[in-house]
User: Which sequence fits this backbone?
């Protein structure tokens, strides 16, 4: 089957670092995405990993370990505007078509 | 138009009524998708289209239909709405034929009473 797990909620302090974990099980893995979604808005693309390792993009970094079925999103120097939901999505190529399978999202609250 | 748009923004609908949610993109993306987002469940794929003239079923297609007459438009139709279809609906598009980075529309909040 297909399963993506991430924590439901997290809290952090402005200026700090937070790591949001995502574990997945899928039969046709071919890449992992992270999206940010502010309340009442559309998801927006943050990062994409297809090979093992760390991808850094400004204050945000994403890590992937395919052998462990594990990824994390690292947010540094947290700002209040980072309060949002963060969605982990796996690209799956089983079943005859490429598709993204989304986790339920992690709601991050950044406090002063 | 810039990017991907959806209409209406929100709608309250009586059960049993027919409803079409509209989605238009101007990025010339081949692939388009419809998702519903429900609290605690994340985004679930309803239908997809890899290119104009083709469509396919996603994870939760029952009660929904789509068409893709051209590259830009991908309407989603609820033939006879039921309360369980109350949700936020997102349309998305992406280059290539599926599974690449997707760009999301602003969403349609649908309430079926």
Assistant:
């Amino acid at each position: 089957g297909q399963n993506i797990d991430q924590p439901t909620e997290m809290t952090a302090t402005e200026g700090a670092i937070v790591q949001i974990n995502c574990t997945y099980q899928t039969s046709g893995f071919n890449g992992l995405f992270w999206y940010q979604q502010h309340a009442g808005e559309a998801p927006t693309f943050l990062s994409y990993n297809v090979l093992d390792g760390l991808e850094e993009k400004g204050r945000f970094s994403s890590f992937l370990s395919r052998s462990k079925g594990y990824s994390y999103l690292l947010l540094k120097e947290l700002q209040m505007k980072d309060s949002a939901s963060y969605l982990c999505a796996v690209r799956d190529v089983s079943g005859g078509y490429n598709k993204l399978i989304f986790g339920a999202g992690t709601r991050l609250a950044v406090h002063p | 138009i810039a990017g991907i748009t959806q209409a209406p923004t929100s709608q309250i609908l009586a059960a049993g009524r027919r409803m079409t949610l509209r989605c238009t993109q101007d990025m010339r993306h081949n692939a388009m998708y419809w998702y519903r987002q429900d609290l605690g469940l994340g985004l679930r794929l309803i239908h997809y289209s890899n290119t104009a003239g083709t469509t396919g079923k996603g994870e939760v297609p029952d009660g929904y239909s789509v068409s893709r007459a051209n590259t830009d438009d991908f309407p989603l139709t609820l033939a006879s709405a039921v309360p369980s279809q109350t949700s936020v609906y997102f349309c998305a598009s992406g280059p290539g034929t599926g599974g690449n980075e997707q760009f999301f529309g602003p969403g349609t909040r649908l309430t079926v009473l």
User: Anything to note?
Assistant: Chain B has no helices and eleven strands. The first strand of chain B starts at residue 4 and ends at 7. Chain B has a mean pLDDT of 93. Chain B touches chain A through 23 residues (CB under 8 Å).
